[in-house]
User: Fold this.
Amino acid sequence: MALWLSDSVGLLPGVGPRRSEQLAALGIESVEDLMWHMPLRYEDRRFPTDIASLEDGRPAVVLGVVVSAEVRPTKRRSVRMASVEIEDGSGAAGALFFGGFRLAALLKPGTRIILSGVPTPSGRTRKHIPSLEFKNPEYELLLGDAAKAGARWGRILPVYPSTEGLPRSTLAEIIRSCAASPELVVEDPVPREITVRRGLMPLRDAFTGIHSPSSLEEIEAARRRAAYQEFWDIQAKSAAFRAERACGRATPLAAGDGMLERFRSSLPFALTPSQELALSEVSGDLNGAVPMRRLLMGDVGSGKTVVAAAAIAKCAGASMQAAVLAPTTILSSQFYEACHRLLSPLGITTAEIFGKSKNAMSASEREKLEFDLKSGAVGVLVGTHALLGDSIAFKSLGLLVIDEQHRFGVSQRRRLLEANAGAHVLMMSATPIPRTLSMALYGDIDVSEIREMPQGRKGVKTRVMSDNHIGELYSFMADRVIRSGFRCYWVCPSIGGDSPDEEAGAVLSRARDVERNIPGVPVTRLHGAMPSSEKRDALRRFKEGDPGVMVSTTVIEVGVDVPDAVLMVIEGAARYGLAALHQMRGRVGRGSRAGICVLLDSAANIRNSRKLRVLLECCDGFRIAEEDLRLRGAGELLGVRQHGTLDLRVAEIARDGDLMEFAAEDFRSLKKTLIYCQWPDG
Ligand code: ADP
Ligand code: MG
Assistant:
């Protein structure tokens, strides 16, 4: 009788109600779940080590015969220990099993036993006692039915995570016999010509190779096939998302192309080639009736805002409204200013909406805004979450822009997309995500990348400095930066946790120190404990007042655009992540003069930090993101919130990135040639 992946594990021989329950505790209900229950590691039992050639500290598997076994007390009265001696013709070794009272009774002299573990000196020197012994090794008795016992010998044995009451060897046997069963039918979701072209084995063989391997090479080939399958499944899921999205209907905005052209010609600069490309991709999406879901990635300062503003202009030109959602009030204000500057000459009205904090809008201001939105008098509304309030209703929302979209949680983002199913959505991120990751994370959306900086950008020079040279830094700031008419950022370390008060303390004391050392220079303070209106004022003073220093915590974050800020000092630099440091330094060097970023830390931290070295050598956000991925692994790079979306058991992004690209490419080619068909369940 054929055994299908969708069958319940209860149908397997040897799996009754009790085993079924234990397997369910491991998340295994179907045969498919069982096949995707991956080994933690493998134990190579093909080649037993001669006891005579055991080495202290080197893991080994030995096959021997019990010479003697005795139960001994230990220092703790309740704990006993079975002390066993085995030999294999080449020599003798000891084994200690703690709590091995019942075991000792089984270990009759002459019993064949397999031990796997790390031998260490026994510490007992009497002559007839073996000098090496295993402490609590994995073991297996070869009792009675030698054929069955033999099945676990002479092979590479997968070791699985198990659960209470289900011995690992039992679980392994259930999985092995299922994977090896001639009855198991695995419908390969990937067409044969593709697997053949990629040199991948059929999925059926991958299950055998993983769970019942005959060589290490087979394990790796099987693992790659399973990893490919995971990436393939992501693509399939994305395709399903897309199909669903295609059912939503957005208003095509082609009527706005005239306005888009006017926008272009009003710009004081030419767009960079990748801005052009991104804009044409966005513009193409906007012409369609399928709602756009596009992510625009680009380093800080690469000019994403301009592309977004162009899209907004097109939307307004088609007589539809646009909304811009930003994660912080500062970024919101900044976006508002950019929109206002770029769009009001074209007759497009931009408004900003504020949240409920102290500086909230007055009731009448808010009422007027709500009215203007409903009447269509306001073309673009920019704000933080306040934008999502119930009383905010647009006359006709055509485009939603989400700035720094990764700052919104996955579920928040999903809700936003669902609530605006009929609107075009442009997401932006200054945290470039390696291509490989973006495919796994955002397989269901399109991605545009801005890869180069606008011309004339002088870039950022990065230096590390130990904090006992802070005096020199102050004089450099005073003489070379501020007196030449440029501005400085000084980022203070956020101290432990997220306490705004402590952070404020660090900012205030550093600000006093700067004032003492560079008398007469305006010092602006900015920290998380300040109300939003004060933060905005501080930023404005820093940007428009006499050249000075802004001392802040990382609250000012990425995206802040002050073209004549040229120096960025990051205190306690070694504690930040690579991506965060790269983003912070991206805030300088945006004007005509090269930026300078000083990474300040203790001499020891500087010496020990590989991160800081990467920053010194590399300026490309995409490459830094790849490096970050290598240094920290995908989970951390994405943060816990996003991690949940990457449901990979086998594949490792850093190792199997090529497979991810193959899967995406292959899946696309497949869709062109045939309709993807899903096998019905059961
Ligand atoms: P991002 O949002 O990607 O961080 P912005 O859109 O804020 O970057 O752009 C940073 C600065 O560069 C802005 O002052 C903007 O006016 C300017 N800029 C953008 N595109 C260009 C370009 N093609 N040429 C020259 N300057 C540009
Ligand atoms: Mg920006």
User: Anything to note?
Assistant: The two ends are 14 Å apart (CA to CA). The first strand starts at residue 3 and ends at 4. Confidence is low (pLDDT under 50) at residues 635-645, 674-682. Residues 189-247+647-677 form one domain.
